[in-house]
Design a protein that fits this description.
The complex is a heterodimer. Chain A is an alpha/beta fold. Helices cover 30% and strands 24% of the residues of chain A. Chain A folds into two domains: 107 residues, Roll (Urease, subunit C, domain 1); 309 residues, TIM Barrel. In chain A, strand 18 and strand 19 form a beta hairpin. Chain A is globular. The model of chain A has no long low-confidence stretch (mean pLDDT 97). Chain B is globular, with a radius of gyration of 19 Å. By secondary structure, chain B is an alpha/beta fold. In chain B, helix 1 packs across helix 13 and helix 4 runs parallel beside helix 5. Classes of the chains: A alpha/beta, B alpha/beta.
Chain lengths: 431, 312
């Protein structure tokens, strides 16, 4: 059995409350030992990680992998490579592909292709409703058996409160989580950016924050009514955070995530009509950004999820209102979180890693997000000093649609280990 | 002095000095327009493309004549739906035009911000002739020019812009321009046609046309589009005309010498009554002539212009 010894790194594991300099011995695909000064021996491959941070592998709750159907934007292979480069040993993939993942056959296709590459764990999410039409619920029992990790109609709001109620109710049989993309489309209308001063100045149709907040409120109340499990995707507004905070205080079962672009950028970024800033929910105001950061810091928001949404260059090189929404986020998530959450002191190291690994694993109900002895050795190594400019041309993702091009960021993942095997080193995939 | 910014997409792209330079030049240009023989050779050998993705009679012919009076070669490309149907992107159309060695591209487009894409695709200088609900900077300039012609200065003058502010590119450019010259800007319309936080553009806001008109020096009426009614912005044209139409009665609240303006085309009997549109206070036709002069001045300055007196 192969043995890998990671020496002298700062081990940060929220699942055990550890944040100290230790060594980790990996035997086969499992963590064999976490202790100080583990003696190296001949049969071990030893890596000195002095000055580096060792964490349980990151898990992204929200990725659009695009295959099947949109392979010109991303494939399971390129998306997996992007994930591994970003430090993610697991990604939950949204079902809005073509065909939509609303039956076990489509779900098995994704799993089969993911297994072919064995780069990162792929957790497929199935649709809440058939064809994501928001009308008839899918076969949750059969889908769960086939490997669905959760349910979501992401990309679209479930307009009917009745349908959402039934979905939450029925999903309880299987303890399945419903991930909600909250946006009242009748209020959002033809909006393409946040409604506020910038939309007025730029003459672009606005989406009021209320369009998101009223559905967050609706879905949380429906979860309270049904005792179902709801997870709010990509929260972007201060009132949205407040609604979730109140619900949690009340004891309602709700979890929530925030995307890096929502805690880094405001609607000011749209000023030059750069279509890489077009995303749903849209970039909001500085008070919203502050509220998202506070929500992550106090645990109101449980996880950082990228909402990785790759698009082809020609699809984004169009008029703002015609461009598809989305940001390619897997390969910039950690340095953005490092620079905008950890370095300014908003989140401690333990809190940051909890948002990227331990809590997403708990939300999905998977036995990951931990460095406990005996668990699967999915590990991410961070170089806190590494400073680099974001270069979309270097992305493994086919989607180069990032508003962070050229940004100098600090704190990059430098090693990703899955099942005890090194999949990425210094930003490059290990073949 | 020439214009620094490569492209003129928003009136904010111009400094106050540049705006004044354009206004000064436009006076000489207006004199040329009034001549018997209008052609001057200033821009001979220069090429201008009018790239219009929307129907427009007045703006397109205004740019075309402005170029021709100055001796430039002007061609019109009505891109409208055809190239969209064929699937050519604005970026690629820009690249194509770029290969033809053009000096200035004038673009009218239904999407806000579209001229920015074109500006990145072409080496030629780009002039925005109206993009979606964003801006129409040459209309802003010609409106300022028209008012200055009558009022001499704008400092402290009350300018009331009335109608569909939400969808108006004219309003956005006018606000920037009039504010830059020190006017006291007001916007007025039903709340359903006022954009979010419009006051932050530096204007006073009212739903009440009487309040907007009281003691106004300049009244700018905007065209109301009928399809807005179907989208629920107001219940009927009848009620809109009653609440937000300019007529001789409510106009009497404005200063006696107030100017009545409209970017055209006008809906008689809707946002403006026929008698007001044709009254002595109305400078609507003057705006059209000034539009040509302003565009001549702008083209001249954007194609490297020196001292205008040499040509005049």
């Amino acid at each position: 059995m192969s043995m890998l010894l990671l020496k002298n790194g700062l081990v940060v594991d929220p699942s055990q409350g550890i944040s100290e300099k230790m060594d980790i011995l990996i035997q086969g695909d499992k963590i064999a030992k976490v202790a100080k000064n583990i003696e190296a021996s001949q049969e071990m491959k030893t890596i000195d990680l002095t000055g580096k941070v060792i964490t349980p592998g990151f898990i992204d709750l929200h990725v659009h992998i695009r295959e099947p159907g949109f392979e010109h934007k991303e494939t399971i292979l390129t998306g997996s490579m992007a994930a591994v480069r970003g430090g993610f040993t697991g990604i939950a993939c949204m079902p809005n592909t073509n065909p939509i993942i609303d039956n076990e056959g489509n779900l098995e296709l994704i799993k089969a292709r993911a297994n072919r590459y064995n780069l990162t764990n792929i957790y497929p999410i199935a649709a809440v409703t058939k064809g994501q039409k928001g009308q008839e619920i899918t076969e949750y029992g059969i889908l769960k058996e086939a490997g669905a990790i959760a349910l979501s109609d992401d990309g679209l709001n479930i307009e009917s409160a009745q349908v959402m109620r039934k979905a939450l109710d029925y999903a309880k049989i299987f303890d399945l989580l419903i991930i909600s993309h909250c946006e009242d489309q009748s209020l959002a209308g033809s909006g393409v950016m946040h409604e506020g001063f910038m939309s007025t100045k730029l003459g672009l149709a606005g989406i009021p924050a209320l369009a998101e907040e009223m559905i967050i409120d609706r879905d949380i109340r429906l979860a309270e009514l049904t005792k179902g499990k709801i997870h709010i995707a990509h929260v972007s507004t201060r009132e949205g955070v407040e609604i979730i905070r109140r619900a949690k205080a009340k004891g309602i079962k709700v979890t929530a995530e925030a995307a890096p672009h929502h805690f880094v950028l405001t609607h000011e970024a749209v000023a030059s009509y750069d279509t890489n800033t077009k995303v749903y929910p849209p970039l909001r105001e500085k008070e919203d950004v502050a509220a998202i950061i506070k929500g992550l810091a106090d645990g109101t928001l449980d996880a950082i999820a990228t909402d990785h949404a790759p698009h082809a260059r020609e699809e984004k090189e169009v008029e703002y209102e015609l461009a598809p929404p989305g940001i390619s986020g897997l390969e910039t998530a950690l340095p953005l979180a490092w620079q905008y959450l950890y370095l300014p002191g908003h989140l401690s190291l333990l809190e940051l890693v909890a948002c990227l690994s331990t809590k997403p694993a708990q939300i999905l109900g998977i036995d990951r997000g931990t460095l406990q002895e005996g668990k699967v050795a999915d590990i991410t190594v961070i170089d806190p000093q590494k400073t680099e400019k974001v270069d979309p041309q270097s992305f493994y993702s086919m989607g180069r649609n990032t508003p962070f091009k050229g940004w100098e960021l600090q704190g990059w993942p430098v090693m990703t280990i899955k099942d005890g095997q090194i999949k990425m080193e210094n930003g490059r995939i290990v073949e | 002095m020439a214009i620094k910014s490569k492209d003129l997409i928003s009136l904010q792209d111009l400094s106050l000095d540049e705006i004044n330079q354009i206004l000064t030049n436009a006076k000489s240009m207006k004199e040329i327009i009034q001549r018997d023989i209008k052609k001057v050779p200033t821009l001979r050998g220069k090429a201008i493309v009018n790239l219009f993705y929307e129907n427009s009679t007045r703006t397109r012919s205004s740019f075309e004549l402005a170029g021709k009076y100055m001796g430039a070669d002007v061609i019109n490309i009505t891109a409208s739906a055809s190239s969209v149907v064929k699937g050519e992107s604005l970026w690629d159309t820009g690249k194509t035009i770029n290969s033809m060695g053009v000096d200035v591209v004038v673009i009218r487009h239904p999407s806000s911000g579209a001229p920015y894409i074109l500006g990145q695709a072409v080496e030629a200088r780009v002039i925005n002739a109206g993009d979606g609900t964003h801006e129409h900077p040459t209309q802003g300039l010609l409106d300022i020019f028209t008012v200055l012609d009558y009022k001499g200065a704008l400092q402290g003058k009350k300018v009331a812009i009335i109608g569909d502010i939400l969808h108006s590119r004219v309003a956005r450019s006018d606000i920037i321009g009039f504010n830059a010259l020190g006017a006291d800007c007001w916007v007025c319309g039903p709340p359903t046609l006022l954009p979010a936080k419009v006051n932050e553009l530096g204007v006073k806001v009212t739903w009440n046309i009487e309040e907007a008109l009281t003691d106004a020096d300049v009244v700018i009426m905007l065209r109301i589009q009928l399809e807005r009614q179907k989208k629920g912005a107001f219940p009927s044209i009848r009620e809109y005309a009653k609440l937000y139409g300019l007529n001789s009665k409510n106009l009497s609240l404005a200063k006696k010498d107030a100017l009545v303006m409209h970017p055209g085309p006008i809906n008689r009997g809707v946002e403006i009554s026929a008698d007001v549109a044709d009254s002595l206070q109305s400078v609507i036709n003057e705006q059209v002539q000034n539009g040509v002069a302003i565009r001549m001045a702008l083209l001249y300055l954007m194609m490297g212009g020196g001292n205008v007196n040499v040509i005049a």
